[in-house]
Amino acid sequence: MDAPLPPCSFSQHLVKVLTQPAAVIDLNGVIRACNPDFASSFPGLHGAAKGDDLGALIDPHLSRDLALLVHDASRAEAGVQQIAVQLPSGPFFFSVDWLDHPNGVPRYLCQLTPDLAVDSSRLRFLLEHLDQGVWNFDFKTGLFNVSDAWRRIRQYPADFSFDGAQRPSWWNDKLHPEDTKAVWAAFDGLFSGQTDTVDVQYRAKRTDEAWVWILCRAKVMTRDEEGKPLQIVGVDTDITHFKEKETAQLELANKLQLAIGVAGIGLWEFDSGTKEVVWDDRMLEIYGLDDNLNKRPDNLWETYLHPEDRERSVAEADLAVAEGRDYLGEYRIVRQDGEIRHLRSTAHFIKNVGSSGKLLGLNLDITEDKVRAQELEAARALLEHDSRHDALTGLANRRLLDERTQAVMDRLGPDDAFAALHIDLDHFKKVNDTLGHAAGDQVLVHVAETLRRLVGDDGLVCRNGGDEFVVLLENAVSEDEVSDLCQAIVDQASEPMILKGHVHQFGLSIGAAIGRGNAVDLAEVFINADVALYAAKSAGRSCYKMFSAGLRAVSQLDMATYFNLARALDDCEVTCHYQPQFDSTSLEVVGAEALVRWECPNNGLLLPNDFIPAAQATGLAPRLDEYVLDRVLADQTKWALNGLDVPTVALNVSLDRLLQPELMSQLKSKLQPHHAISFELLETAFLDDAGHEIMTVLNQVREAGIRLDLDDFGSGHSSVVALQALKPDRVKIDRMLIAPLEDNPAQIHILEALVRVSTLQGCGVVMEGIETKDQLDAVMKLDCEVLQGFYLGRPVDAAAFAEKLNSCQTRVGRG
Q1: How far apart are CA 527 and CA 101, in angstroms?
Q2: How far apart are the two ends of the chain, measured CA to CA in Å?
Q3: Secondary-structure percent of the chain, ordered helix, strand, coil, rounded to 5
Q4: How many CB atoms lie within 10 A of CB 762?
Q5: Rounded to an integer, what distance in angstroms lies between the CA atom of residue 107 and that of residue 31?
Q6: What is the secondary structure of 223-262 as a DSSP string?
Q7: What is the pTM of this model?
Q8: What is the pLDDT of residues 185-239, one digit of tens each?
Q9: How far apart are CA 382 and CA 384, in angstroms?
Q10: Model confidence pLDDT, tens digit, residues 445-474
């Protein structure tokens, strides 16, 4: 017979063989032994828990203290003491039973028994209120039993009968067509004995025809002798919500993948511990690799980096890994085919437990963006260049001139000097109006190239607009050097050039001014250049003038005249006087010459010599010509309304006026049948310009009913050439050829020759400047048509001329 176990060993053996949580305590509630299940029921107990005070652990969960339970259990008649207890691990019955008292020390057995009633009710609650339906199927009886939750998932009423549930056709009506095959394949394996469990997802039709996603997990509980299942128990879980989330996440993933694909983003990973590198297919495409190997060597990236970017990019990436932070960089790679691509790389550093961490990154090929940025930068640079340069000639414009001039002023020392040249093409408007704007552009480009070549690096050449150019000489050494440059420009510009197959010559005028020292007024230097340019134009053009103090006084006088004359035209202070023209035989009035007068409020009546030069020099002549034409036509209309026969009135017209594009349209709109006018053309103005274009204009003038007179005939250097070229209706013999008759009777022979040449060309002859009776007697012997001069009649205003005309016409009518 075996010896009895020691008290301590007995207690440990006892709790070990018990299947439920158990412990042995002494009278004071000190634990002498316990099994692991008992210890795990109390968070405060670990291991054997021997020596722990059970009362301190369990009393907070008991309605009676452990000491009372032990006291009652000590009485033999009391028996086992049991009380309900709610522990963190669940509901239990806690029992205390007297065990023995070896060595006079009583021992008590404590056990925890699960409260099955509470547990089962909780289980039922969970099964019914969670979206999990329990079912079982008995193959012998054909009964299909389901829980309320199973019905609720499919919206079946509580009294719904499941007759026929054992037939596949009944289930096929409830399964989604796309899931039927998978469901039956799963259960066929269970029926055939290949497996005891089923785990399948499918869509089932609810009674409202809606589809619900089911996660079905089932198990064969028993099989017959042949291995066929007798009973299956399963749980169906409503996973519709999870499936909707899964679908949404899948859609989001698809959209993200689509975005990544469209954006051309390549994904990569780098494990800093294993040095493993993984590239997706897009990364392979970016790097020009077609071997479909997604795992790459860790140093492959470095071998593709552009030499100029390699050191910087590797250092940035290594620092990000070393510091365990995100990475962002841009660099170039050189592919195996030699193509250079620009990449932007960004990565998130992930630190996992037990690893060194990894970079999850993406690469975006930004080559097109870089190319576009370079193109935009080139376009910006071009715009910046264009904003400072003339589009036609490529010269600097006013903006660049202002910047360079200010730069010169900023660095100008007290002994330094600079010069400004203001250049204007002579009669350039005539080129545009007669040869066309394309030819005008050719001339401008030719002049620009000439200026650029002659000025070179010594200064800046600027087109100031139209036919105006400005040269800024940043280091003007002396006035002689500036003069030499100006003369060279004038000479070069006068060289013949071919336009539309014909050789043409053009001139330009230059005004130059020098500024010295850093205290000079910048604006004043350019104004001085303008004044000098004005002086060059007044001196006959095609020349240059250096500014001097005397030029400013003359310029200011002419400009004052210009502004006063412009105002006078607005205020109608300019009027016309008419000098009668007489028939050389009857001496009756047959016409008149309109002579402009300025009735100045401050200076009285001004004659043409007082203001015409200023009008010509300042470009006001065309406007003055138009004004005079309007006055003459208005006076003729008044004469006609008063019953007078309107005679032809001769008007002086400038070349600039003839070359105005709007001239013919104005004439056609203004002329009426009672108007009779002729244009007097200065021979010296037209000798060098009687080309095809000007002849076209003159022919249009004739077609409009206006006669053409060649004024001052005989005073030019080639009168016969001018006569043949222009073919005027009449010529006016210059008064300077008539004046000598007083002292030199032989002068008559010169006049006879001029008259003879004119008549042979079919032109009428007007003798002007007759101031004495001897001159009248002499010219009346010549074959001329009309006589004019102070001896016969002085210029008078419109009203006086109308009276003279009326008197003459009345006398002729009586005769």
Answers
A1: 132
A2: 192
A3: 45, 25, 30
A4: 9
A5: 10
A6: E-TTS-EEEEEEEEEE-HHHHHHHHHHHHHHHHHHHHHHH
A7: 0.42
A8: 999 888 888 888 999 999 999 989 999 999 999 998 888 888 888 888 888 999 9
A9: 5
A10: 999 999 999 999 888 999 988 889 999 998
